[in-house]
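We were asked to recover a plausible sequence for a given structure. The inputs and outputs are reproduced exactly as logged, with field labels preserved.

PROBLEM: sequence recovery
POSITIONS: 131
GIVEN STRUCTURE:
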């Protein structure tokens, strides 16, 4: 397996890092690389398609910044910067799907993973989006 790089927008990486590391070791023979960004401002959206194999976006309904998780996904979708089938939402809120639909984002294309996430579920999701 070739090394694949996953972009992860998550401001509380330490809370889910273990699940990603275990999934990587047990399901991918440690062939995945994770690039974690706490803020959307820390990433260039120009070359997402060539740099990353999948993107995980943390979404919380609490804060609304100019480029929060919803708007990251909207930007990716509107500007056709990345395949939405390879975008995964990480969230602890069960209203996220509703909000994505309100923003006219097709939730059939986007995988939603609810926190806390265990490494086995994460392994399955990673296999799906990386295939």
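RECOVERED SEQUENCE:
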């Amino acid at each position: 397996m070739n090394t694949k790089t996953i972009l992860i927008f998550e401001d509380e990486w330490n809370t889910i890092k273990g699940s990603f590391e275990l999934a990587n070791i047990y399901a991918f023979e440690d062939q995945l690389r994770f690039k974690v960004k706490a803020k959307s401002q820390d990433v260039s959206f120009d070359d997402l398609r060539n740099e990353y194999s999948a993107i995980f976006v943390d979404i919380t309904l609490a804060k609304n910044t100019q480029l929060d998780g919803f708007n990251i996904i909207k930007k990716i979708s509107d500007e056709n910067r990345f395949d939405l089938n390879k975008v995964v939402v990480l969230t602890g809120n069960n209203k996220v799907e509703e909000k994505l639909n309100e923003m006219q984002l097709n939730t059939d294309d986007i995988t939603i993973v609810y926190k806390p996430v265990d490494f086995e579920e994460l392994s399955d999701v990673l296999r799906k989006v990386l295939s």
